[in-house]
From TrEMBL:
Pfam families listed in its UniProt record: Imm33
Taxonomic lineage: Bacteria, Bacillati, Bacillota, Bacilli, Lactobacillales
Immunity protein Imm33 domain span: 10-82
UniProt protein name: DUF2185 domain-containing protein
Organism name: Streptococcus taonis
InterPro entries for the chain: Imm33_dom
Length: 110
């Protein structure tokens, strides 16, 4: 896996520090090295996410260590906005915040 094939993911430092991923969204980035994915933790609030110092750009090799499922949803369209669902601290699926329903990875990629 080559980091340059995927571009950079914008990741909350709280995720890097071990908090579960709660939200991911993808939007077209004005920075060509970024792939548009932003990854937020379960404890990030508006004040936290408004400070750019609270984020780190990670490559795909680091992302795979944190959440391999991100590679499965990587090709999702810009505008994808997902809430991560857990059962007993195990990731079990996604809730699409636009369609307001649980969705499968296949549906995310349509």
């Amino acid at each position: 896996m080559n980091n340059s094939d995927f571009g950079g993911f914008m990741v909350s430092n709280n995720v890097i520090n071990g908090y579960p991923i709660q939200y991911t969204y993808r939007e077209k980035s004005s920075i060509s090295q970024l792939n548009g994915w932003t990854i937020l933790s379960s404890i990030d609030d508006e004040e936290y996410i408004s400070n750019p110092d609270n984020f780190t750009i990670l490559g795909v090799t680091s992302i795979v260590q944190i959440a391999p499922v991100l590679l499965e949803i990587f090709p999702a369209k810009y505008g994808t906005d997902l809430f991560w669902l857990y059962d007993d601290n195990v990731h079990i699926g996604f809730y699409d915040l636009k369609s307001e329903r649980e969705v499968t990875i296949t549906e995310i990629l349509q």
